[in-house]
Structures are given as structure tokens and as C-alpha cells.
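Two proteins follow. First one:
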Amino acid sequence: MSGAPQAVTARPAAGARRTGRPLVLRLLARPEVGVFLGAVAVLVFFLVAAPSVRQGGSLATVLYQSSTIGIMALPVALLMIGGEFDLSAGVAVVTSALTASMLSYQLTVNVWTGVLVALVVSLAVGAFNGWMLVKTRLPSFLVTLGTFLILQGVNLAVTKLVTGNVATDDISDMDGFGQAEALFASSFGIGGVQVKITVVWWLVFAALATWVLLRTKYGNWVFAVGGDQDSARAVGVPVTFTKVSLFMLVGFGAWFTGMHQLFSFNTVQSGEGVGQELIYIAAAVIGGCLLTGGHGSAIGPVFGAFMFGMVNQGIVYAGWNPDWFKAFLGVMLLGAVLVNLWVRRTATRR
């Protein structure tokens, strides 16, 4: 009986400590708040340093550059929240585009046939990565590094074998190209400014990913397997399904991004994609996702991708040497890692 009053009084005391923390610290403990403030700071900086950024067309270009990174950064972020990462994401984009292009051209079929086959191939690559990870229990670094090297070699070798060149043939005059281009690579006008359709898809995918993470059982599974997969399995979370499906989501993102590249330029260079996986991972890390898993959001990588697009185009509009772009990215990445470390300590502080 004497223990009951102590328990009742202890809970309000703990709650008082939590609610007594400054509002700013509680907000900054959210993984997306810090990167949002960083994105605003980068935007303001280039609005001042490069006046041409203030034009509608320039902002549309920044958003387009951000969307091409952000569409892939979203599934990569979900995978990182689930405790893994994928080094093959960059070349997987090119694999998807090459598959659709060569299959359509060489077999003289409607381009939608190539698009659908490319989707199957991309999902299969993701499923293979997830299956290998679960069955062998190897680190995702080793599994996806192997897939990266395989895809890089296959992309080059098969393209040369089939086309006799390092690039695919132009498919812009083939049946179905116009419809596919409208879906993956079209533009529309807003106030006299042309905006790429990828910006819309980027925001739609971000909203969907946010809903999945915060409002569905699957979202709980993602956080659970990223935090401690053994504990998650012990309470009934389908760890194998969650891991494999997350890798397949990365495959879907690679397919969509690959289709955009194909129908934007009508042809694909087989050696592209190398290094892009680091950009996607960096955008997710800057967006608040921890490399250790179990922490992050879908909104944070949206702002992380926007920072990449803003810096990439802002340097050009400011008339600076574009060689500085990678230096800026390095500074942003290190800064984000330090912020994430502080956020983790703040979030777990009693």
C-alpha cells in the first residue's frame, strides 16, 4: 500500500521533467526540424549571393535537380531507418533505364513493354539484395557492394554486346514513347514557369512515405527492425519480409528514376550512375536518418535533397567554380552527422 502513492507521485515528476524541457529542444529533437532550418539557411544564403536564384525559372530548376535526387533518397531513407543501406542504388537506376531502352529497341516493341520488364528487373535486384542479406546475415555494405560491381559490369558489357556502343539507341520515335514521356519526364506551366513532373512525383512519394511510417503497422515494423531486429522478431515483427520489401522499395525508386532519365534524354550511357548512391545516402543522412537505423523520417530527406539541389544550382547561378560543389556537400554531410549525434543525445536524455 505504501508503494502506491510513491508510484503516483513519481510519474508526474518524470512528466514534469519532460514537459519542462524548452520547446526549442523538443522541436530540434525531431529528425526533420534541423535539416529544415539548414535548408532555409542555404536558400537564404543563395538568394543573397546569387540574385538570379530569385527568378521563378531558377527556382524551378533547383526543384527539378532536388527531385531527381529526392525520389531515390526517399526509399534509401526508409531502408536506413530499417537499419540497412544500399550501395547499388546508383547503378541500379542505369540498369533499369538500359533494360527498358534495349528491350524496346532491339525487339521493336512498344516502349511500355520495356518499362514493365525494367520494373520487374529492378524489383528483382532489390529482392536479391534483401534475400542475400537475410540468408547470409552479411552486412548490407558487403552484399550491396557486390551487387554494385555486378551491375556496373553487366551494364557496360551487355550494352556493348547488344548495341556495339556504350550508349543505347534513340527510342524517341517508338510506339508508346509519348505516353511514357508524359508520365515520367513531362513539364507543366505555373505562372509562366515550366515545372518538371518529377517535382510532383517527389512530393507525392514523400507524402505517401510519411503516411506509411507514421500511420501504418508497416511503418512500426520499419522502426522496430532498425532499432533491434532480434527484439522485433521476438514480438512478432516479420523481419525478413520487412527487410526484403525495403530493398524492393529502393528497386522501385531506381526504376522510376531510370525511366525519367530514359524518357528525358531518349538514350542512356551505360557507365553512368557510379557515385550517385553516395548522394542518395548523404541526402538521407542530412535529412536526419542515422546510419545505425531506427531513427529518421521521410520529410527530412526531402529537405536534404533540396539542399543538394540548391547548392548544385546555386553555385552555378553565383558564378562560382562548380568544382566547389563536392566540398559544399562534404561540409553539409559532416555538419549533418554532428547534428544527428546531438539530436540522438537530446532525444534520449531524461
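Second one, unrelated to the first:
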Amino acid sequence: MTDASATAARKPGEPALAALGLAAPAPDPADASPHSFPGGGRWRTEIPSCEGPEALAVVLKESSRLDVPIHRISQGSGVWMLTDAEITEMVEATAERDIELCLFTGPRGTWDIGGSTRTDSGGAGLRARGHDAVAGCVEDAVRATELGVKCLLVADEGVLWTLHRARAAGIIPADTTLKVSALVGPVNPASFAVYERLGADSVNVPSDLTLDHLTEIRRVSAAPMDMYIEAPDDLGGYVRMYEVAELIRRGAPLYLKFGLAKAPGIYPYGHHMRELTLATAKERVRRGRLALDLLARHGADGDMAPLGSRLPGTLNRFETTS
């Protein structure tokens, strides 16, 4: 990748606009995030919605072909939608490339029998309804980590806190990382800080947050932030390619998630959706290449975290003793 120190970073279109007397104001240093990932680097990459070993193989092949570095690969259908053999195959394939694998935990409200999520208000959303739903998430977490999965995706505050306590108690490995889903992502600095204290190691914020919102969050928390650079339609369909450099400047440490708009949903995945899933997996990697090319053209592709890095550094937590 281009050495950012060799090329002064610039805003999109800036030389031409400056020549026409339409130059943008210089960035305010006070807006920049002071944080980075442990070991160096201000951004990592993530390919989401990788729903099984076959889709994973497509992602890995395409990332090699297009030279797209990957720090994390995540899945959205859930641990319970994969066999032990499938999980093991995914664990082994990502371990060979030193990529973190993140699987979604357990039941969620949108698939539950509760009707409130189907009302106009959306009810309780993705959250785990009742003791049994929490138990299902914990069952998924224990099973996945026993098979070698090191990152778990959660969509409920109670599940997050329970898994953080399980991690502290040694029920799941201490180096397990917990990622908050975009489906429940916080939209203000106060709630972002609460997720960090509940045990989140990275927090997916909605892709419609403004640049100022990111700066506000960074004034209270250094927890890694995940953001779809291109969001699926059910999360708004936002495409923020030209803002990538500024999103990093404001939001670091930041996972750049390469989603896909104008594509049907694939959760929960099954082989009846095979062709669509493989095609969209391949295209997500291509979207990543487009975003990285933009960073390079603007002289802003430096400061990527080393490949293979996955831990979040020291974060603020609530006390886990009862």
C-alpha cells in the first residue's frame, strides 16, 4: 500500500476545487481522534455476512486476488446455524491467514415468537427475550469458543454483560472478544461508553452517524468502533466511500466494514440461498478494494493496523463482582 508519509493527504477533489476558488476549510486538529489500536494503527478491515465455509473460501480467494487485507471476518446468521464441522473448518481457514473469525450468538428478537418486533415501533428489536433466549446465546458462546472461535457478536446488553462476566470467570476464554452488532449500535457518546463498560471490545455504530457524532464519541471512549462504509439496505443502504479518510481521522480506532447495498438479506442463511450468498461475498471484497483504492489516491492509506492484530487494548469496565 502507498506510504501516507510520502504523499500529503488530501480531500477528494481538493486540488481542482482549490483552483476554482472553492477550497474546503482545513481540518480542525481538535476533531481528530487521539486513539489507536494497541500495537499501532488506526484502522482495521472487516468483511461481514460471511455465512459459512463456502462463502469464507470465496472471500479468502477474492481477497488474495484483489490484495484486500482482512483483519476480521464476521457472520450474521448465528452459531446455531452452523454444524461443528462447519465452524471448525472456518476456524482453521481463518487461523491459517491470521484473521479473526466472529460468529453471532443465539436467538434474537426478530426471529422470536414475540410480535412486538413486527409492529410499527419495532418493539424490543434484536434483543434476547426472556431467560431462555439469553441461555441460547450463552450456549452458542460456549460451543463456539470450545471449537476455537475467538470473537462473538451480540445484539443485547444483558447478553453482552453475561458473556463479559463469563469471560472474567473463565467460563469462556479470557481472550475472547465481544462485538456489538450494528442492529443495536449506540448513537450517542453516553450509550457508547456504557457498551464499553458492559464488556464490548468493539462497537458497531450506525452508518448514519455524522462526523461530529464520531468526534463526540471519541471524547469519552477509546473502544474500537465498527462502521459499515457501505451499509446493507436494511441498515439504511448508506454508501460513504468518499468519507473513509475522514471517518478514520475522526473515529479511530475504526474497523472499516465493507457491506453491500441493493442486495437481498441472507439471514438466516441456508443452502437455498447459496448462489446469492457466494456472489455477494465476492462483491463485498471488491467493495473493500474500491475503498482502499480511494484511501491510496488521497494519500490516506497509512496507519493500517498490522495484519493479525485483534485485541482492543485496555478498556473501561464495570466491576464484575456481585
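SUMMARY FIELD: The chain is about 35% helix and 10% strand. The first helix runs from residue 14 to 19.
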